[in-house]
Amino acid sequence: MRDGLVAQRSHSRKRLTFGCGVPFFLAGSHDFAVGGGDGSGMKIFGLAGWSGSGKTTLAIKLIPALVGCGVTVSTIKHAHHSFDIDHPGKDSYQHRQAGATEVMVTSGERWALMRELRGAAELSIEDLVARMSPVDLVLVEGFKREPHDKLEVFRAERNRLPLCRKDPRIVVIASDEPACAALADVALPRLDLNDVGVIADFIIAHCGLAPGLPKAPTKAAG
Q1: What angle do CA 86, 139, 136 make, to 5 degrees?
Q2: FRET pair for 55, CA 20 to 30 Å: which of 25, 75, 78, 197?
Q3: Is 197 helix (H, G, I), strand (E, B) or coil?
């Protein structure tokens, strides 16, 4: 097992090993999934942390690490109420201003669908994921009050209390100082924030994902 992982689970421990990662010993994980009635579903795992802790920085490093392990990944980012991806003067912006409920912008490279809530309640994680195409894992940045399992990004230098003290759905901590005094009494696995491979392995194991690693090409006989 690589350095930096502290597994502090005391019951129902099970050993999980993947070809892309390392063994982990975890208590019965309670990952959150949204899917159809056939029992299949997209696993949801969140990144939580104080503002400026580095959630986005970790996310953009984790995505290629997970994809490299054969895990298909989509993301959800919670933003401020006033965020906008459109621009005044653009045709799509004028469609929205004119009262369109949804506006789809599309090209040969990508498409985007914008929906105006117009006073309606903000959608929950379940509602949002239900509108996404199927993947193995939805990585969520923000939504710290939603009931999905999360990793807390913790930086000791910011001198803030860990969020895990008030959020029971935080299941692991990634810190630039895993052995710092602020985390000394936290009974959760602590990972090195700079070891993205170990963090990716933990997420794969915790969510019960079986990475679809590409097979090495075989040589033709003769």
Answers
A1: 115
A2: 25
A3: helix
pTM across the whole model: 0.76
List strand residue ranges (DSSP E) for 116-169, in order: 137-141, 150-154
Q: Which two tokens stand for residue 210?
A: 């079986």
- Asked if the model's pLDDT at residue 18 lies above 60, the reply is no
What are the start-end ranges of the E strands in the chain? 14-16, 24-26, 32-35, 41-48, 73-77, 102-106, 111-115, 137-141, 150-154, 170-175, 190-192
More confident residue, 29 or 134: 134
Radius of gyration of the chain (CA): 20
**Contact in structure between 47 and 59 (CB atoms under 8 Å):** yes
% the chain with pLDDT above 70: 76
Residue 85, judged by CB atoms within 10 A of its CB (0-12, 13-18, 19+), counts as exposed
Question: What CATH number belongs to 14-79+123-206?
Answer: 3.40.50.300
Joined tokens for residue 71: 């895990």
Q: In which element (H, E) is residue 73 found?
A: strand 73-77
Measured N-to-C along each axis, helices 196-206 and 55-68 cross at an angle, to the nearest 10 degrees, of 70
Domain boundaries, the chain: 14-79+123-206
| DSSP H or E segment with residue 65 | helix 55-68
